[in-house]
Amino acid sequence: MPSFFHRSEQIELLPRLGKWLIIASLVAVLAGSASAFFLLALDRATAWREAHRWAIWLLPVAGFGVGLVYHLLGKQVNAGNNLIIDEIHDPKKVVPLRMAPLVLGGTVVSHLFGASVGREGTAVQMGGALADQLTHLLRLQREDRRVLLMCGIAAGFASVFGTPLAGAVFGLEILAIGRMRYDALFPCMVAGIVADQVCLAWGIHHTPYAVAGIVPVGAWSVLAVVIAGIVFGLVGMLFSSAAHGLGALVKRRIAQAPLRPFAGGLAIAFALWALDGYRYIGLGIPDIVRAFQQPMAPWDFFGKFGFTVVSLGTGFKGGEVTPLFYIGATLGNALAPLLHMPFSLMAGIGFVAVFSGAANTPIATTLMAMELFGAEIGPLAAIGCVTAYLFSGHTGIYRAQRIGHGKHHKRRLAAPEHLRLAELALFRSAEAERAGARPACDLPTATTTEETRP
């Protein structure tokens, strides 16, 4: 018999395929079930808050309580999504299981009393923490553990938004700018698809979005989407910089961690009262839906932007993505008449493109647009997402994301491989010193230390 049948690469692949089919499905059941419970709790919390608007004045107390719990019990997991990304790049120890209940409880409390936060961070952290508990149980090696954590990210993202393909690619694309690990593509795809089905099996129904009046791909439609994509990318960059900048400022000015969300809660409550900005707190799903149906006020995106930056920057738990959906959809709605494009179409592209720029995930967000709004929007959504990705610069909402490859061919970053976004400013400073004929012996390395972790 020919040696091909004895040592065929395809034959050797079968055991690995079976192994990850089982493991990824197990991760998906855990993450999908956790997301279902989380979404149900979030719906109940939102309904209660909307029926008791006075509860916003308890937001400072709620923030203090969440901050105190994390200060006492959650210091090891306070880095959230960044901790999971760091563990994939530089595996050290299993993510504590306590991350799942802590972020679940913290996010529900944040929504219950009116913080402007999302839900993706919670789903990703629950998925990653639950998946990592299988590391010792299955006696997984270092490389397999990396794939396991990527499956947890994919499963959490896919199940919480009902976008299995986008979730699978998000688990690959979020790790590094300009580089993806295709060896984990099959496990992440299985995890995303199964987790979405598990969440649906629990009776969860995701919000439908209808994009009407998709225009054909043509000279003007492409140019209009490119122009809008530039704006979307700049807004995504500004959002990332503002949230991280405020967070750093608050940490310098307020030494006691529980007092940070307390102060943020006070600021949000008084701003809400003074500006009558109740629509800008929580997830903001009703306004996102309206952005697809009718013209919106041109300042709505900025209102959500401000309340979300303050909420996240002062330490409230949740995610950034759904607020970015709100910002993008309302901003696209406002740009539509200026660009002579249907506001529903521009709301849909803005929905995914601002997120693409802020998270540096153009492929996942293009797939998300097609899954949520239909395949017909794909070409224009891709142009908007890629343009936003390019114009958001080397910034991002995930500070542990690595620089795999620079975004611009003419201005490639001569940065060490696996440099974290959080370390990029230090690297540039050191490069500037070296350009000025000063020694640059303190360049950051790929090794992640406790000092560089957020």
UniProtKB/TrEMBL annotation:
It is found in: Membrane. It comes from Thermomonas brevis. One of its GO terms (cellular component) is membrane. CDD domains: ClC_sycA_like. GO terms for molecular function: chloride transmembrane transporter activity. Keywords: Ion channel, Ion transport, Membrane, Transmembrane, Transmembrane helix, Transport. It comes from the Bacteria. Its main location: membrane. It is a multi-pass membrane protein. The lineage of its organism: Bacteria, Pseudomonadati, Pseudomonadota, Gammaproteobacteria, Lysobacterales. PANTHER family: CHLORIDE CHANNEL PROTEIN CLC-E, CHLORIDE TRANSPORTER. The chain crosses the membrane at residues 20-42, 54-73, 147-172, 184-205, 217-250, 262-281, 301-326, 338-360, 372-392. This is Voltage-gated chloride channel family protein.
